Structure formats: C-alpha cells, structure tokens
Amino acid sequence: MDLRERLARLDRLSRPAASDPASDPASGPAADPSRTLTEALGLREEATPGGTIWIRRDRRDLAQAAGPVGDLSGIVATELPHDLAWSEMLFLDTETTGLAGGTGTLAFLIGLAWWEPDGGLRVRQLFLAGPGREGPVLDELARLASGFRVVVTYNGASFDLPLLRTRARMNRRHDPLGGLAGWDLLVAARRLWRRRLPDCRQQTIEAAVCGYERGPGDIDGALIPAAYQAYLTTGAAGALPEVLRHNRRDMEGMARVALAIAAEARAITDEAPRAGDWRAVWSRALICERRRDVARAASWARLLRDPVAQGRADPAAARDAIRLLKRVADWPAVRALVCAGLAHWPDDAHLHYEAAVLYEHRLRDYPRAMTHARRLADAHRLARLEARLARPAPPGCPPPPDAL
Amino acid sequence: MNLAQLLSRLRADDRFLRHVTRWEVLAAEPGRFADWPDGLDARLVAALRDRGIERLYSHQAASVAAALAGRSLVVPTPTASGKTLCYNLSVLDAMLRDPEARALYLFPTKALSQDQMHEAHDLIEHLGAPIKVHTFDGDTPETARRAIRSSGHIVITNPDMLHQGILPHHTLWVKLFENLRYVVVDEVHQYRGVFGSHVANVLRRLQRIAAFYGSRPQFVCCSATIANPGELASHLCGQDLVEVAENGAPRGEKHFIFYNPPVVNAELGIRRSAVKETRSLAERFLATGVQMIVFARSRMRVELLLTYLEQAGRKVGIRGGEVRGYRGGYLPTERRAIERGLRDGSVRAVVSTNALELGIDIGRLDVCLMCGYAGSIASTWQQAGRAGRRNDLSAVVLVGTSSPADQYILGHPDYFLGRSPEHATIDPDNLVILMSHLKCAAFELPFDAGERYGGRNVAEILDYLARQRVLHEAEGRYHWMADTYPAEEVSLRTAAPDNVVIVDQSVPGHRIIGEMDLFSAQEMLHDEAVYIHGAQQYHVDRLDWDRRKAYVQPVTVDHYTDAQRKVELKTLDAEDSRPDDHVGDLGLGEIGLVDKVTVYKKIKLGTHENVGAGKVNLPEMEMHTTSMWWRLPPDLAEEMPLAGLDLGDALKGLAHLVGTVAPVFVMADVRDLRAQAMVRAPFTDAPTLYVYDAVPGGVGYARRIFEQWTEIREAALEHVTACPCSHGCPSCVGAVVESGDRAKAGAAWLLARAAGRHAATAPAEPRPPLSPN
Ligand SMILES: [Zn+2]
Questions:
Q1: What class does CATH assign to B3-27+251-417?
Q2: Average pLDDT estimate for B630-635
Q3: In terms of CB atoms within 10 Å, which of A175, A370, B481, B485 comes out highest?
Q4: How many Å is the maximal CA-CA distance in chain B?
C-alpha cells in the first residue's frame, strides 16, 4: 500500500480538526493578492538590500514630555542611561503566530514608534509577507534600531525580545536590538500600580492611569494568530486590518504609559510626601526603598499609620511600613503601627513577632514581650524572657521607658 | 555457615533440587586488559593512574580507540563493567584539546543522570580541568538553566527533556549545538518498540539541528547484552557504528539457579507463591552473613518482602536499618543513604524494584534473588549483575511466578544462558510516529522541499501536513504555521497522540495518575473495570470516551476484570511472502482491525474463578498495523479430525502459545503483540495464524517474527512439549476453559508437522471431566 493511501486513511481515522479556517483553501490565493492586500493594510512595498519589504508609516499627535526622562531607578528593572532623552527611545511591539514560544513561532508584524525631535509620534509597521521573508525585515529592524539607545516594550523582556533574538538566529543574523538597553514597562507598571489595580495588563493601565480609551473594535488578542494563518492560505486581508490597528494602538498606549511612569517617578522624587490613596503611598514608599533613599521611604511609610489605624490598609502594608521605620529607628512610629495593626488583625503572626522584638529589645517591657511570644509559641524567646525577668536589672541600665 | 557452605548444602538438598530447573556454575574469568589507546591525552592517563587505574579493560580501550578515530560506536556493557570510562575518556579528551567542545549524555531516567554526573565530576576533579557537567531535566531550577545552556560542557538529560525542552528551543543552546562533538546514549536496549521508535526520531531531529549549526556529533552507545546491539544502535542513531564485541571485565565464580516453585493447580497453571519461596530462600541466605539484593516486580511485593526480611533478620541479629527497601516514591536523600550503605556494607540486604537494575552505583553484592522474571533477558542479566565481586563467589536465584513468560524462561534456561535470542526492534518510520516528529522538526527548522529526513524522502507527508494547514509551503520551504507547540502533544512513551487520561477522584481537586492509549483503555478502563496501577487497585467509576477521561478511585477488592474483545481482522496488503519449511506459507503485510469491547468478566484473584460479568458500551475502534501470518493448508481441516484432533482448538492453542513465546525473541512486552487464528481467513482462504503489533502502524515486531519464524516456531514446539500440564495451561496453549481440551495436542501436532517431524506423542485422549473437588 503506498503512502498516499495510508495518508488518506489517516485522514479518515483522525478526529475532525479542532479548528477549520472558514476560507476554502481549494480556491487558492486570489489572482494578485498583494495589490489588494497592500491597499487594505496601507502597506508600501520598499526595496531593501536584502529584498522587498512591506512597511506602513503613520504619525500620531502625541507630544513627548518636556525635558529628559528623569530618574527611573527603583522603577525599572535594568539600568537605563541617566541622561536618556525621550527621542532616544524606540517603542516596539510584535504580533506573532502563537504564544507558545520556541523556534516555531514567528513575529509577522513588528510595530515600532518613536518621538521625532519636533514632537509627534512616528509609527512604523513591518509586515511579514510570508514565513520565508524574515531576513530583510530583521535587517530593516536592525537598521532602524541602530539610531536609538533604549527599546521600550510591554512584557517584551520575556516575550518580544527573546522571540526576535530567536528569529535572528534562525535567519543567521545578529540580534537586531543587541545594542539597545531594554525598558519593560510591565515591570514598572507592576511596581507602581499593582497594589491599586486589579491587574497590570497594558490596556488596564492605559485606561486607569492614562485615561486613554481605545475605542470600539479592538481585536481580541487570541484571534490574531488565526488572522495571519487565514491570510497565508487565502492571500486575502481578512481580519489583518484590525490586527494592524490594534498594534498601532498598542504603540500609542505604550508611549502614554511611559509618560505616566516618568510623571509618577518625578512625583516620588520631587513632591513632599502627603497623604493620598494609601496604596499609592505604600508603592511610593517601596520605590524609595528600592532607590536606597531610606529617609524618604520612611516619610512615605509614616503616612500609612492612619490607614492602618482605621483598618483600611492591609496587613502587608503595615508590615512594610514597620520594616522601613525600623531602618530609621523611629520607635514611636513603629510602636504605633504595631499597636494599630494588632488592633485590627489580632492573629497576624508577623505583627506579634514585631511586637515581641520591640518590647523585648527596644522597650524592655518583658511581660508584654511574653504575651506576644506566647502567641507565637516561641519557646526559645519565652525561656530567654523568663530568665530576664528573674534577673534584676543590671546597675547603670536605664529603667524601661514608661510609654512611648 | 558461609555462602559456599550454604550452596553445597542446597546442592545436596533433594527437596530443594526438585524445583531447580537448572543450576549453572559460571566459571571465574580474569580481566582482559589493553594498553592505553594511542593519542589519549596524557593528562587523562595520569588522572586515572592517580585513582589507581593502571590499565583499561579491553572493551574500554577499544571504545576509546574507535572514538578517537572519529567513529561512532556501540559497546555492550554488563552491570559493573566500568562502562562510564568507555565514553567519559573520549569526551574529556575532546574537551582537553578544545575547551569549547560540548557533549550531550542521554539516560532513560533522572536517577541515572544524577549518578552519572557524580561519576564524571570525580574524574574531572582529578584532572583539574575547568570542565562543567550539569544535569538538565524537569527538576533543574529556572535560575540555573541559563548558565547550563551557555557554559555546560557536558549536559546530562533524558530523551523526553531533549524532545520537549531542548530541541524546540535550540536557539538558546547555540554553544552546545555549534560545538557538539559527542552524544552518549546509555541503555540503548531500553529504546525499543514504541519508545525506541520515538527516540530514534528525536535523534534524527537532534542531528538535523546540529547540522544547522555546522556540527556532526559522534555517538557512543552502551547496551545491555542483547542479540543485536549494533543493529539497534545504528537504527536508532541513523548511522553506521563500530561494534565493540567483547567485554574485558573480570568476574568471580557465579552460581545461577533457576527455581520454579511447585505446582499447586496444573490446569490453571498456578504455582506456589513466588513471594513466599523468595522469602524462605532469602532467610537462608541472610543467615550466612552475605550482602544481598532482592528484586521484586511491584512496589507492593517490595514492601511485603521487606517486612518478612526485617522479621527474619531480627532472628539472626540483624538490626532494622540493615535491611532496606528501595523503590520509586522514596525520597532522593533516602535513596542516596541506602546506596551509600550498600557501598560501605552497613546495609546488609535491600529489597528493590527494577529501580536498582540500572547503573546506579551500589558496589557489588554477594547474592541476588529475583522474585519473578524481570521481563526481558537483558534486564534479568542486569539484575543478576548486582551480585558478584571481582574475585569472590556469588549466587543468583531466579524464582519463577506463575506467569507464562516466567514459565517460559524457567522451562528453557538455555535461551537465557546461551547467546541472547533477544532482538530489540524499532520502526522509526511508523507513519504515526514519523508524522508526529516531522511536525516537531518543522517547528524547529523549516523543511526545504526535497530535504531528506532520517534518510528518506518525506515530500508527500510534508504536502499532507500542508494540506492540513499545520505547515505552510512557500518558495520551496515548509514552515510551521499552527499556533501550538507540537512537542507538547507527543509523548515518547505512547504510540498514538490521543490518550485517555486517568483521573483519581478520591482526592480533593482530583489527581491525574496516568494515561493510556485508546485501544488499551477500551479493555482496561471501561465503566466498572478494576484497573491496577502501581500495585493499587482502582475502580473505574466512569469512562468519558468523548473527553478521553477515565474517573477512578482506589479500592481493595478480591477480583480483577477481563474484557472480551471482538476483533474483525482484514488483510489490506501483502508485502512479502515465502513458503514455510514444511507446512504452509508465511506472509507479511498490513492488516485492518475493527475492534469492539463488548463484555467483561470479573475474575477472582488467586483462584481465577469467574464471579460475574457485565456489558461494555463503547464505539468500535479501527486500527491498521503490521502483521505476519502463517497460512496452513486447507486440507488440515479434514486431516486433523482423523488424528482425533480439532483444528479450532489447535489454532486457539497455537495463537496463545506463539503469543507467549514470540515476545521473548523480539524483546516485546506481552501487551505489545497479539496473536489471533482463524479456521478460515477470508484473505488466505485457509486456516491462518496472525501475529501483529498491538500499536497503530506497527513498530517492527511482526516483521521481526516473520524473519525469525523458524526459530520461534521451534521454540514454541519445544515449550509446548515440555510443559508439565496435561491438556493445556496458561503457560503454554492457554487454560482448557479458553482454548479447549484438544488445544495442546493439536498445537503440538501442527508445530511438529511444520518442523518436518511426526508428532512425538500420540494425540492425547480427550480430557476426563473435571472432578468436582
Ligand atoms: Zn502447559
């Protein structure tokens, strides 16, 4: 029996395929799909040394912020140039044939954006005409990227950038973004807003922080791979115009989020700490700690006392505030937070621990320390405290401060 | 009493000897040595001398010499024959010359990987070279992975991890693939059947990727003793290899005793419990002060024997911690402690599953008891190899269970002791398996039109996959185009991509305890079935066929279930044929099976009584596979009754018999093969025996049986003639209730005719009715 028959039989035996693109592949690609496709997608064919590529150019009226980007330390995961200018950033977002990762996933659309020195956001989209045409696209990406210092992405550190590195290796090329530092906005967004938003997806941040609404008709990300597959089988644009528009919106959204992050960074540095949304206060305190500005971190942390006392904040915020205030030895504030915290969360083991340490070592109030050590069933500490109680205070040792 | 005294006492003990089917004394053999291979880096020689190794065994030297000459090779390495030096020396030699050189080691299990890493570390430490060895498997922490990818010189992993975790991400492993000099494949004999056919494809993909990065690695394969290590390894690696023949490791005198417990019920083929017999033997050996390992086939038996031995040990002054159990499910630290205890002698006896059959270093012991045949001759020798220090006396006892395979081996020790009859078989071109890996390969690198894969033209299959829109063909290349990760959907351990998942619903949140192919699932996981997994019985509450899920919960019941399969067999295509020596002719080709499980029986454990039945409602299954067949002359139907025989019974018995004997020759599990006979097969228009692969598409078993038919037929005749039952039992032609009372005589008669002999005995009288007691 020949292979063809066996394959036909396999077809019959296999269960119906899970997904079947609506289009009929038997009809084949349209006569000259590229003309209508480029029109439908607004693409221009351009000759490059490596071959023809398809590009779309746009401009968005979104002004860059005045002055340099400013100090982002503590907010970004990697080191960024301290004198970075807004026009030295390249925004990048890819649309891919799947989310599985590995060597079999292609980036079929690479969106790029940057601020021209005259203001205004330029957007470029490089579209992959077919899976064998990656070479010139990657070359063009490398050429464009060479004029920038930082590549800005949303979750690109773990998705877009490794994917492009893989594509470059598969096409025997160097990493087209190898010379650029990376700024992943997702990391910054998490540090700044995770505590007050339900999630940190780009569109959530855009809406909640930047007040930017995308408008109707944004394609569901899960449908994007199928749109490209359908194009490959039929040659028709199908849902691709929506995919390109989605990608452009992603670019603009990223630029807005970057501006918002820089604004928040300036607020943390320049403004005097003042009460506000306790979750924002909490995040700011932690950012200052990451910046090793302990004094400023403690100033923000002090502002958590009221929300804790009113039971609005959560115990994790109280614990962080206690840690920061201990570092500046502000014992009255520590005690106030511990007491306020325990009033609301009497079973919080961590707070009992802080209380036991505070009463034993700072306030030398051993009976109170024992109350908390008992709650922790900390036998070692209890034994030590009993010994301390049995022993008279050594001469010259100051009496325990009465109350703080 | 010491070991020698106990052995001579047993030799004089008639009550013991009565059940010994063979007592073989393997004479001591001195080691055979060879000079250091020419060109081996002097630093390595110095490091070995430093460790007290002055010369290499002949097989080690031959392996290193072949590798240094640029060849791939396979070397048979019985337990404790110093196999690691067969590959570590050439690999380290390459790394001393070129610090960028890389090697990949493949071991079938994670435990072995760990052990091998320590082994290599040790030698490298003596060398003082900056060579890094790492294991890379599911347990490797994410934080360590990056460093291993870029700077691990020797990466130790398993085929599953290579398949799912490394090859589909090859761009993260550029250093490894650009500089890949050696691929070490240990335990190649385990890569047979479905698993081996998959692994051969994983190695094809590996070589395809290596070629992309400009490297062409040499293979060093190690194998237990089987009949065809060279053929298997070259098929597996897709290239010709040098076969290192002899093994130069020394051994002391070894007594190999085949012990078959007495028959309790001849009709049902039931013998006295192997566990009990093993227990009493173990007690006698333990009292002599020897160090001992006891192998048992299931975790449950391990625990049972362990309890017995602890009790027995106490009587002779052995403390609790000196007798240990060892099996999967023990913590790694616990296992390491037991291994150490065995090496330093503080553990006196260990009861283990086959987890200790593989190369984990536990030193060498005095006595090995096997409670049941290990399933293949190669594995049995690996277990037996645990006993025997270099110059001392050692003893191995194989205690048979009632299972047909055990009875075959116990009845025919010559197969065991002579040249291995076991041919390991794979078929990397099985269409289902091949296609799965073509998908993975296309995911890894696009295919050029006309590109060969595993040496064959795959254009038609690529076109097929393009029609299925899994691949996209453009400008002469086939690109992966689906939004999935194909390696995730392909398990190396099963034939068909579609499996039933077994869900234990007795635990909160449910727990997946395993998977099973669709065909076996119909038989073993139907509603109300009792399914045995890891020595635990489970009751199948519901089989959700459409969702491919079986919901089970653990139970303890006194019966098991046996589903009755109705099989309709059609020959689709004859590919090869030849006359058999004296009677009929043989064919090989493709068959179609329409399978339906209709009813099941409840059978009582121990007595095998039928204690109930039920209906099964499942859809028909269709399978195509490879079969060999033996067409007998149609006039037998007239001739046999004249001799007082019945053709139907004879064929049923023949199918059972061949199904028992053939797996030994093709290294198959009994479940991998099926034999079925028809009094009048539509295709041959004559009485015909079919023996086929129980795997869609087949993995080469039937082909191998077709080639080795004469040998297998002779073995079947010998087995049925020697079986002590009167009219048939599960060990030979099947129980009388299943095959009929004239099955044994009929099958023997047919086989004798085929061998050109007249039946040795007159046909047996019809069996007298079973007496009520
Ligand atoms: Zn028998």
A1: alpha beta
A2: 94
A3: B481
A4: 81
Cβ neighbour number for residue A380 with a 10 Å cutoff: 8
What DSSP state is assigned to residue B727? S
Kindly tell me the sign of the dihedral angle through the C-alpha atoms of B491, B494, B496, B498.
negative
ipTM of model: 0.83
For residue A12, the chain B residue with the least C-alpha distance is B622
Q: How many domains does chain A have?
A: 2
Calculate the CA dihedral of residues A263, A265, A269, A274 and round it to 10 degrees.
Answer: 70
Determine the Cα–Cα distance for residues B374 and B296; give it in Å rounded to an integer: 8
**Of the partner residues A13, A102, A233, the one whose CB lies closest to the CB of residue B443:** A102
Q: Is B409 helix (H, G, I), strand (E, B) or coil?
A: helix
Q: What is the pLDDT of residues A122-165, one digit of tens each?
A: 999 999 999 999 999 999 999 999 999 999 999 999 999 999 99
Mean pLDDT value across residues A60-86? 84
- Claim to verify: residue A197 and residue A340 sit in the same structural domain: no
- The confidence band for B621, taking pLDDT boundaries of 50, 70 and 90, is confident
Q: How many Å apart are CA A129 and CA B571, to the nearest integer?
A: 48
Burial group, residue A286, by CB count within 10 angstroms (0-12, 13-18, 19+): buried
Which among B168, B431, B573 is the nearest to A102, CB-wise? B168
User: In DSSP terms, which residues pair with B686 in a beta bridge?
Assistant: B681
Under 8 Å CB pairs connecting chains A and B tally to 90
- What angle is formed at CA B194 by the lines to CA B106 and CA B693, rounded to 5 degrees? 160
Name residue B467's amino acid.
R
**Do A40 and A184 share a domain, yes or no?**
yes
* Residue B149 confidence (pLDDT): 93
Closest CA to B477 of A134, A369, A163, A236: A134
Nearest to B541, CA basis, from B604, B610, B531: B531
Distance B736 CA to ligand 1 centre (A): 10
In order of B301, B335, B427, the CA distances from A177 in angstroms are 60, 48, 45
3-class SS shares of chain B: helix, strand, coil, % to 5: 40, 25, 35
User: Does residue A228 share a domain with residue A294?
Assistant: no
CA–CA distance, B144 with B150 (Å, rounded to integer): 11
Number of other residues whose CB lies within 10 A of the CB of residue B251: 23
**Residue B540: in which H helix or E strand, if any?**
strand B536-544
Tell whether B594 is within 8 A of chain A (Cβ): no
> Distance between CA B462 and CA B470 in Å, rounded?
9
A251/A356 same-domain check? no
Please give the average per-residue pLDDT across A68-86, as a whole number.
Answer: 85
Q: Which residues pair with B516 in a beta bridge?
A: B500
Number of other residues whose CB lies within 10 A of the CB of residue A309: 17
Rg, Å, chain B Cα set: 27
Q: Which two tokens stand for residue A76?
A: 């970004």
Contact A21 B624 (CB under 8 A): no
Q: What is the pLDDT of residue A122?
A: 94
- The CATH code of domain B33-243 reads 3.40.50.300
pLDDT of B771 above 60: no
Which of A245, A268, A291 is a domain's end point? A268
If you average pLDDT over residues B318-323, what whole number do you get?
A: 85
**Residue A17 is part of which domain span?**
3-268
Among B443, B467, B572, the residue with its CB nearest the CB of A104 is B443
pLDDT score for A254: 95
Convert A5-48 into a string of H (helix), E (strand) and C (coil).
Answer: HHHHHHHHHCCCCCCCCCCCHHHCCCCCHHHHHHHHHCCEEEEE
User: Band of the pLDDT at B42, cuts 50, 70, 90?
Assistant: very high
Residue B625 has pLDDT above 50, yes or no: yes
Cα torsion angle, A347, A352, A354, A358, sign: positive
Position A251 confidence tier, pLDDT thresholds 50, 70, 90: very high
Q: What is the CATH number of the domain that holds A348?
A: 1.25.40.10
Would you state the torsion angle of the CA atoms of residues B686, B691, B694, B698, taken in this order, to the nearest 10 degrees?
A: -100
Q: Identify whether residues A306 and A169 lie together within a single domain.
A: no
Residue A404 lies in a domain: no
